[in-house]
Write a structure and sequence with these properties.
The protein is an alpha/beta fold. Helices cover 39% and strands 20% of the residues. GO terms for molecular function: glutarate-semialdehyde dehydrogenase (NADP+) activity; succinate-semialdehyde dehydrogenase (NADP+) activity. Belongs to the aldehyde dehydrogenase family.
Amino acid sequence: MKSPDLFGAIDRLPALGAPFGRRRFEVFNPSTGELLAELPDMGVEETRAAIDKAYAAQAEWAGLTARERSEMLWQWHQLIVTHTDDLAAILTAEMGKPLAEAKSEVSHAAAYLQWYAEEANRIYGETISAPSTDRRMLVIKQPIGVVGTITPWNFPASMVARKISPALAAGCAIVLKPAEQTPLVAGAMFALAAEAGFPDGVVNLVYASEGAAVGRELCHNPKVRKISFTGSTEVGRLLMRQCSDQIKKVSLELGGNAPFIVFDDADIDAAVDGAVQAKFRNAGQTCVSANRLYVQSGVHDEFVDKFVERVRQLQVGDGFDPGVAIGPLIDSHALSKIESHIADAVGKGGAIRCGGGRIGRDGTFFQPTVLTDISSAMTVAQEETFGPLAPVIRFEDADQVVREANDTIYGLAAYFYASNLKRVWRVAEALEYGMVGINTGRMSSEAAPFGGVKQSGIGREGSRHGLEDYLEMKYLCMGGI
């Protein structure tokens, strides 16, 4: 179907006040192939101009009271809530996810703005007992400075809010480069930020079809004091290297390989519900998506039968069509990856229980797929698929499954279902992951710290801890008092 009108949002995209040049790039609807927009294709010159604007605005923005920054974040939050339907339609058109999911994501983005509008007023220092009576010792916290942010295509609204709302609350000006596949909702959100009254230069947007040159400039430019990136571990490593010469602070939310474990004392129906949610939300294109489903032998067959029945009921199609639960994959490369993972598994003895193929000749739709008889030798057990593919692995005991779950360079999210309280505590503590969902398939919240360990990243987003990544601690020692 044809995408609905984008409500004039593209025409309202804010300009940087920097030269755009002549190059353009196109944004397409992955469901239909329809051309949605042509945007200026920016590079080093435009990125440097945006950084200069942010740097010029930094001192004045940091000098505002916390209440003044809070009020602007509140106003932005309210505008996003008012325009939820418009923003969700833009998001579905450029990314493909079902409209109901898109609305949920926009609401989640607004929740981050609300949270950090409140947290802006709670940046506290501390006093320290001095070793002598003529001295006073205290700690204050100040904004780190200009922040360069790079956001992914899979959650193009919530990632924008999750990254820049704590930065703005802390008193940092920002430069954002959204993913080239999904820049339109970011542009519409920035237009609303302008309406909310943010001073010129505090929020800056850079569109680019290739992120390498923009990323290098953000990392190498000394006016940028911090980089915040969400994306692949490979790119995260590259950005860390580029920031190393300046010892620039980085926050990285990178790849995952999430285990989803079902123990034999679990509520199987609840586990099936959680697995469907954790695996197939956003067509499996989430960094916290369940990538390896481990099911204990005693309940394996029951779980698989119920799980396959539920998966077969999931409707795939254009995100604007009613009843659709799974939209398209983002591009042809994603299709090729899921096909290669299935072919490798089947070639090594895996069985397709449902799905397994593309839908139609056009678009990037793929059947939600369940594989069984999976072994650790298969690619699907080792790599993140990032698609609607659920491999189910049988296991015997808790020690075994914890070892296998931890046998990865990644440590972002993990899930497990169990009833025994002793097992719940032991497994939760033993899993080497930054986030663990216990008897739930969804755990993201603006109030909770989001982030991973090992090669899944550095730092946390969300919660009060997310604000600390944008603040520098300064110790003041006052003598002669």
